[in-house]
């Protein structure tokens, strides 16, 4: 029973990481109606930047918040420089841009910071497991940080005028322009915010999986499964889906398929959702009259 409880709690902690990346994916999807395949590589680059700051002598939390700012700027610049010129281009053009970003950022990260695996520090230190051996200090702390970020993002979008303007620009750009919202800048802010959220996920997961240029490849797949499960057009649903995938992955890895085949859980979820309910558990079903 203790083993099951440990897997459940660890799954919730891991699910928080997936939920963060899933939320970033949904934010970009709402703005562009495309999935940003380079979201994981952007988060990895941000995590390397954070490690560089820490190694330069900056305290962990100072480096953490500085990385959020740098990541936000990088995300906004990507939208302004790369995505803005192709915003009205065909779907395959966007797919090509995202894949190109994935390859360029991954290779540039390895070229700048090296391809060797690096240890990333955690601010949550403890001599052993907590709560009777059910959870580590890092799992507990990373879950708290992730939940705090998700709550802040919810409050921002639900209770601030800027957040409401960003939602309006993503859902209906034409109507948003008619009421005076600068849609272009709202989209850039959305990209920046998605990059910052992704950087939190990168910094929280790096102490557990170690840091290398390909650190987020598997995590992005789990996050995509969570976004599809909850609803690719529903931010709250994507967050719930991310936590669900984290729990399912841990339990399936421990009791069903083994740790070596855990990645297949994400693939099964993706295929199952696309076949049975493409809109996800909480997504909108859109009907078109012809």
TrEMBL record:
Membrane topology: Multi-pass membrane protein
Highest taxon in the source lineage: Bacteria
Record flagged with keyword Transmembrane: yes
TM segment ranges: 6-28, 60-79, 91-113, 144-165, 185-209, 215-232, 239-257, 263-287
Location of the protein in the cell: Cell membrane
Record Pfam families: BPD_transp_2
PANTHER family: ABC TRANSPORTER PERMEASE PROTEIN (PTHR11795:SF451), BRANCHED-CHAIN AMINO ACID TRANSPORT SYSTEM PERMEASE PROTEIN LIVH (PTHR11795)
Family: Belongs to the binding-protein-dependent transport system permease family. LivHM subfamily.
Protein name as it appears in the record: Branched-chain amino acid ABC transporter permease
């Amino acid at each position: 029973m203790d083993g099951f409880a440990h897997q459940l709690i660890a799954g919730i902690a891991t699910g928080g990481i997936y939920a963060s990346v899933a939320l970033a994916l949904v934010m970009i999807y709402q703005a562009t109606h495309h999935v940003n395949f380079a979201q994981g590589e952007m988060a990895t680059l941000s995590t390397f930047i954070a490690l560089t700051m820490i190694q330069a002598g900056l305290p962990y939390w100072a480096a953490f918040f500085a990385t959020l700012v740098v990541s936000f700027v990088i995300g906004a610049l990507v939208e302004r420089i790369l995505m803005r010129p192709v915003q009205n281009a065909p779907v395959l053009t966007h797919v090509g841009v995202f894949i190109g970003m994935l390859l360029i950022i991954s290779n540039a990260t390895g070229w700048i910071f090296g391809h060797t695996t690096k240890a990333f520090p955690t601010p949550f230190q403890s001599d052993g497991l907590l709560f009777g051996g059910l959870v580590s200090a890092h799992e507990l702390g990373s879950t708290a940080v992730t939940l705090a970020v998700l709550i802040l993002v919810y409050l921002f979008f639900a209770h601030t005028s800027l957040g409401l303007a960003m939602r309006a620009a993503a859902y209906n750009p034409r109507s948003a322009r008619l009421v005076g919202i600068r849609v272009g800048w709202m989209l850039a802010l959305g990209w920046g915010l998605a990059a910052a959220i992704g950087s939190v996920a990168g910094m929280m997961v790096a102490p557990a999986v170690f840091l290398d240029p390909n650190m987020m490849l598997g995590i992005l797949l789990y996050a995509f499964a969570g976004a599809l499960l909850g609803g690719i057009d529903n931010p709250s649903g994507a967050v719930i889906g991310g936590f669900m995938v984290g729990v399912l992955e841990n339990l399936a890895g421990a009791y069903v398929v083994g740790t070596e085949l855990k990645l297949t859980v994400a693939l099964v979820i993706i295929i199952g959702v696309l076949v049975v309910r493409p809109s996800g558990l909480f997504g909108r079903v859109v009907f078109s009259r012809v």
